[in-house]
């Protein structure tokens, strides 16, 4: 059974989807630890309700990003992670962390990458007048939101949408594709190599599996 460690900063609805998928057996793994940089993150309650050990590691207790990331490496390593899943973990990670887990470090980002890296993705898609928006799961590299994309899911932007309604639509898709990608990884079907994402021995296209 592969050991998943999930990093969060907030609500943890993606964490919940992954815990549920593990419990249902659609992901052949177990969430063995949840780490948050915020003590108030509701995802910590979700983890406790599921009997998953938690740890709070506040970035405010560290003088710079590198020392925080070194402590984070140690915390994740304590759980002996096979897969590290960033699920709404709102920290920019330095190479100190990324290089420790590269190839087994996933992130979910609420846009159709390479569009809208960074924050406020839903409002930016609305402001640009886009007709579609979505979510990407990607391997994490040192480039912010820039690692190879594994999978994307699209949602239509309708005239009545605002940032909240769009976030809700995107979240529904996130809860489908993140467990799906975790399942691929734990089943040994998904790797990162030559700066690309590979599924079943084939290079995925730049937009990943859609
Ligand atoms: C998700 O929408 C995820 O895509 C986003 O944070 C939200 C977390 O929701 N991640 C980022 O913006 C990363 N840059 P959750 O806490 O309910 O899983």
TrEMBL record:
<comment type="similarity">
    <text>Belongs to the GART family.</text>
</comment>
<keyword id="KW-0808">Transferase</keyword>
<dbReference type="InterPro" id="IPR036477">
    <property type="entry name" value="Formyl_transf_N_sf"/>
</dbReference>
<dbReference type="Pfam" id="PF00551">
    <property type="entry name" value="Formyl_trans_N"/>
</dbReference>
<dbReference type="GO" id="GO:0004644">
    <property type="term" value="F:phosphoribosylglycinamide formyltransferase activity"/>
</dbReference>
<feature type="binding site">
    <location>
        <position position="65"/>
    </location>
    <ligand>
        <name>(6R)-10-formyltetrahydrofolate</name>
    </ligand>
</feature>
<comment type="pathway">
    <text>Purine metabolism; IMP biosynthesis via de novo pathway; N(2)-formyl-N(1)-(5-phospho-D-ribosyl)glycinamide from N(1)-(5-phospho-D-ribosyl)glycinamide (10-formyl THF route): step 1/1.</text>
</comment>
<dbReference type="InterPro" id="IPR001555">
    <property type="entry name" value="GART_AS"/>
</dbReference>
<dbReference type="GO" id="GO:0005829">
    <property type="term" value="C:cytosol"/>
</dbReference>
<comment type="function">
    <text>Catalyzes the transfer of a formyl group from 10-formyltetrahydrofolate to 5-phospho-ribosyl-glycinamide (GAR), producing 5-phospho-ribosyl-N-formylglycinamide (FGAR) and tetrahydrofolate.</text>
</comment>
<dbReference type="InterPro" id="IPR002376">
    <property type="entry name" value="Formyl_transf_N"/>
</dbReference>
<dbReference type="InterPro" id="IPR004607">
    <property type="entry name" value="GART"/>
</dbReference>
<keyword id="KW-0658">Purine biosynthesis</keyword>
<feature type="binding site">
    <location>
        <position position="107"/>
    </location>
    <ligand>
        <name>(6R)-10-formyltetrahydrofolate</name>
    </ligand>
</feature>
<feature type="site" description="Raises pKa of active site His">
    <location>
        <position position="145"/>
    </location>
</feature>
<feature type="domain" description="Formyl transferase N-terminal">
    <location>
        <begin position="2"/>
        <end position="181"/>
    </location>
</feature>
<feature type="binding site">
    <location>
        <begin position="12"/>
        <end position="14"/>
    </location>
    <ligand>
        <name>N(1)-(5-phospho-beta-D-ribosyl)glycinamide</name>
    </ligand>
</feature>
<feature type="active site" description="Proton donor">
    <location>
        <position position="109"/>
    </location>
</feature>
<feature type="binding site">
    <location>
        <begin position="90"/>
        <end position="93"/>
    </location>
    <ligand>
        <name>(6R)-10-formyltetrahydrofolate</name>
    </ligand>
</feature>
<protein>
    <recommendedName>
        <fullName>Phosphoribosylglycinamide formyltransferase</fullName>
        <ecNumber>2.1.2.2</ecNumber>
    </recommendedName>
</protein>
<dbReference type="GO" id="GO:0006189">
    <property type="term" value="P:'de novo' IMP biosynthetic process"/>
</dbReference>
